[in-house]
Hints:
Structural class: mainly alpha
Largest sheet: none
Number of strands: 0
Number of helices: 5
Order of helices and strands: HHHHH
Amino acid sequence: MKVGMTSRNPLWLSGLSGLALAVILTIGTVGAVRYGLPPLVVSVTGRLILLVFVLFFSVVEIPLMVVALRRIVSSSTSVWVPTVTHAAFVFFAAFYAAPYTLLTGQIWVGVALASLSLIRLGISLVFVSL
């Protein structure tokens, strides 16, 4: 499925769309916390356990999905499957951060978790090419 250097554009576009969705979700969760949603997890231990759990899944998924994206790119005959999967991969850092932000009320930690979308975008653009 390698077409040439111009084929990197679909990855940029899908990555930016995943990033845009991540920003929208993050703004929504920050707004919900900021304007009245009370935190359900208030203990420091509970917050730490939840942070480790969310951070673990968000970071461990990165190399697994890079390998999966490379396989999808090499085996797919359509450009849509890899690009939609790539957008979802970039978006899912914010998807993991949203419950943490909503449950704990810690906005800056939630935003930091959601910003892993940028790391995911950069890593996927380096290691995956159409």
